[in-house]
Amino acid sequence: MSDVETTVITGAGIAGVHAAESLRKEGYQGRIVLMDRDQQIPYDRPPLSKDWMTGEKDDERILLRDPSIYEQLDIDLNLGVEVTGIDPVHKTIDTKDGSSYEWDKLMLTTGSKLRTLSINGDDLKGIFYLRRMADAIAMKQHMNNVEDAVIIGAGFIGAELASSLKHLGINVTIVERSSYPMENIFGRQISEYFLDLHRRHGVDVITDDSIGQFNGETSVEEAVTVEGRRIPCQAVMIGVGVTPNTEVSHPQLQIERGYVVNEYGETSVPDIYAAGDCTSWPYNGMPIHIEHWDHAVSHAKTVAQNMIHPK
């Protein structure tokens, strides 16, 4: 182990970037290694379904920080690195390319991962999930030759994509299994408002139904609902929610709706912390899990402070 204390942060999304930045602002003098499996300089994901998709923002304008900031703050940014294992005894992590990184403290900011569908025809070309820049690039390129698109799920991603694709002149149909999308978050009145807003802007919203299969030769040509509706389409976007990404794991790490952390962001393994969407943490004596941009930022900053100012 090096004489210089090293903090490794796995996941260079909104939580990871703010955690690394906060460590420096709090006076941390050790080495900071910020790694991510993505190849791109850390970027903000929400615009991928909105301003970036419509062309109102380019790649540079959705970066979380100018690339020079990482150098100025002496943050060792390692991209295209996929963690495969943790050794809490020797304090190392292993990566897919065979490398091993030593750490004194480790922070897991792995975010969330997409829920996926498994139905007939889901391997046809033109069916997309949107999580990373690579997904957005492939989707945007495909849209050049699309007249009709189906969006499965009327949550945040689905609603944003519907608006963006209508802006691009594409006919959009949303298929939502519930009667009132996001009612559990906003309530019935707000849900009805959003439904009406989409319909007034020309989006066909089908509720109380779900997709049963996709048809086509090599590319998707039709989406068929469980109730028998047949919807012609050349593209399908699936947005049926996310779950905490706990793929970076170890038997000693307690996981229940995310990495279980205490009020300081400490996991069940000494010197391993976690923050953001990948965590479950105590609130009024009960474990809660929150998936939100603001929470990821504030939680990462707080946990970073706790790492260098122990309780």
From TrEMBL:
Gene3D superfamilies: FAD/NAD(P)-binding domain. It comes from the Bacteria. Keywords: Dioxygenase, FAD, Flavoprotein, Oxidoreductase. GO terms for cellular component: cytoplasm. The keyword Amino-acid biosynthesis does not apply. The keyword Flavoprotein applies. Residues 7-300 form the FAD/NAD(P)-binding domain. GO terms for molecular function: dioxygenase activity; oxidoreductase activity, acting on NAD(P)H. Its cofactor is FAD. This is 3-phenylpropionate/trans-cinnamate dioxygenase ferredoxin reductase subunit. It comes from Lentibacillus halodurans.
